[in-house]
């Protein structure tokens, strides 16, 4: 077992232990914080495939996070208002069922990522960053100016959506759901990284020429990665909306894209559990420093600066050493 | 003899500069065809057009009888064109084995597999390991490309090309930067390769060229000024004047 595996196991256990302790200590707020960390980590896990393995610096992942959030908001608002989504040519009702919402969120986010990726991946470097940012902002302003679903005010969902056999309003049960999905996503990403797809994607980040000359089309490879990345971040968006029982255009904002990127960079770019470590630290800082000063982002900025300058591997890199080949 | 690779009337200009001017050459089964010429003669431009990373203004490239002029690099590679670079293009953070797997995966069309670990695919891994052993990297398969010596990286480039089991090799200065022994080893390796697939070899190391080439084409200012056997080229007065120097 490598050191990184041990670090990963420790991170997974820590994220599980904190809410379990909070449950016995009757601290539901801490459970909610842990749930937030798990969901934001999931968003980062999505971005990490594009950014870390693929080297695609997407500054527009809020688009997928928001699409996931709005998929939940739209479906649930129709269900709670008993208004069908559409009646012609056939009737589509809203739903309060999490599995259905997740599926719709992932599909929509995946499609959005395919579209955005197909255009953005024709550019590279700083142009790619700018074009993904522009797409994210397009979604943001679209959400603001769409009165049917709350416009600037967003959408409130009165009761958290349901999952068969669970009481999702119970914080610890909802945490269990988010945690299980995060672990599932991490497992899948771990497989992906070692599969031919991950090997080729990772090599293309280092030398596009090498992979093309090997007979592997880099554009298709990256587009696939971008879409999968969007699917995972979209799922996180649906969960995040359910956690807050609220969706608003803020989910689409460039600050959200930036925060998801911060989880990945803080935790360790391209490291499987990097986003988990990053999101956990982010939540801890937000909670602790946020209580001290409204301007806690200054300290976050300082830490980020330190990581970028002195600890490129982020938290996981600092704990586990360089990535194993 | 069969032409595996055929370049017909390929031209490429950058502004007023004609880097390639109606270049035609062919690569036949079982041969090593060396392409020589002074710096700036257009060798790299020609190689790029054959590989597909640069579109010619005019002319066609045929691979095993098929017109591949409109195809991109990856599509040509899948049809059996392997290329090594003048400056090693490798995934430096990855191990030698992972690098070699890229060629094997590409040739097998297996890059879009998402679940089973790449290195657990015995067949493809076998191809990659055999190629590494063949170039003399059998003992360092687990080493990162960044940790390999310059000479080993050149060998790794050739190993990746081998894993593609190509119809033709395109090698851009495989001897560049190799020491004397390295050069000799590479010469022996390439010499044994031609029976499997012909090699279009761009090389400045004239000793290697004369030792390996079945035919030589001389490119000067974007034009092929002569094509022939080693002896014919050595005797050609125009080549001596343009390239080898009067005293050669």
Annotation keywords:
heterodimer, A: 325 residues, mainly alpha, ABC transporter involved in vitamin B12 uptake, BtuC, two-stranded antiparallel ribbon, 13 helices, B: 248 residues, alpha/beta, Rossmann fold, 2 domains, four-stranded antiparallel β-sheet, 9 helices, 37% helix, 25% strand, globular
SSE pattern of chain B, N- to C-terminal: EEEHEEHEHHHEHEHEEHH
Task: Report the β-strand fraction of chain A as a percent range.
Answer: under 5%
Number of strands of chain A: 2
Given as residue ranges, the uncertain stretches of chain A (5+ residues, pLDDT < 50) are none
Widest sheet, order of strands of chain A: 1-2
What is the CATH superfamily of the largest domain in chain B? P-loop containing nucleotide triphosphate hydrolases
Distance between the termini of chain A: 14 Å
The helix content of chain B is 25-40%
Strand elements of chain B, count? 10
SSE blueprint:
The complex is a heterodimer of chains A (325) and B (248).
Chain A: H1 3-24, H2 28-53, H3 62-81, H4 98-120, H5 126-144, E1 155-156, H6 171-194, H7 196-206, H8 208-213, H9 218-244, E2 246-247, H10 254-267, H11 274-292, H12 297-310, H13 314-320
Antiparallel strand pairs in A: 1-2
Chain B: E1 3-14, E2 17-28, E3 32-36, H1 43-51, E4 58-63, E5 66-67, H2 73-78, E6 81-84, H3 96-108, H4 122-135, H5 150-163, E7 168-172, H6 180-193, E8 199-202, H7 206-212, E9 215-220, E10 223-228, H8 230-235, H9 237-244
Parallel strand pairs in B: 3-8, 3-9, 6-7, 7-8
Antiparallel strand pairs in B: 1-2, 1-4, 4-5, 9-10
Structure summarized in a few sentences:
The complex is a heterodimer of chains A (325) and B (248). Chain A has 13 helices and two strands, in the order αααααβααααβαααα. Chain A has 325 residues and is mainly alpha-helical.
